[in-house]
Amino acid sequence: MTDEFSKKFTNNPGLIFHDISNEDYRVYNYPTGSVRINKPWAVCWKDCPHPYGGGSHRVVDVNKKCFYLPPGWISMEWEKTKEGTFPFQF
Asked: 78 and 27 in contact (C-beta within 8 Å)?
């Protein structure tokens, strides 16, 4: 069942979004290039086996711009900005 935070982003009870508003940015690195998202707010992920890396992610930034990151990213990086929060939230 979708939690209250997730209801800000979807009406699909199968999608659970996690608060990542403590991050200043995040970068997904693919074999062919990178995608940078500034001021991310929430992320939903789907684990799926992929020969080249991570599963798909859905990210919403603070301006409510939505990003779909397909499977295959090989690494990601981020920087946190909020004091008192941990760089690894989940």
From this structure: yes
**Which tens digits make up the pLDDT trace of 10-26?**
888 778 899 999 999 99
φ, ψ for residue 8, nearest 5 deg: -70, -20
For 57, the domain range is 17-80
Number of structural domains (the chain) is 1
The pTM is what? 0.81
